[in-house]
Amino acid sequence: VSTQSTWEAVVSTQSTWEAVVSTQSTWEAVVSTQSTWGAIAPAYYITAGAGAYEGAIITRRRDGVEPGDKSKGVWRLAEHGANGKPEWFHLETNYDHWTKPPIADDRRDPANRRMEKLTQSGIGLQPIFESVLSIPPVFASDTLYTSKIMPKEGYYQSILRKH
User: Does residue 67 carry a pLDDT above 80?
Assistant: First the structure.
């Protein structure tokens, strides 16, 4: 994959996201749109709003969200998580969150440990980028780009990754 074609895909994705966000009045409307619009390939849409618990990972197939259990298709942050405590992050790698990652490519468990080490009070785009997303095995040899987005601040940056 060439740098030019990768960058064109990033720009196209950014334009699509901007179109969705700019035409919806609420975070819930954005999640609904991302869950139902046509997709050319399966994907994970990681969506955040500016309010508390406005975070979700949308597992998309070409024809909509993952069928069956709604929590699989749209995995939302919850004020009262499975352990009764507020959820401050969900983490997605290249495998559906409800399945066990393959032993040969488990980036999820190391990334979760790094996020927990950062703690909610130490969170920010740069700490996540440096301490989670840029260290192997999370930063994989085939990672093409990373996008950093902070809706509350209106911040969006995509970075082509070099190996």
Answer: no
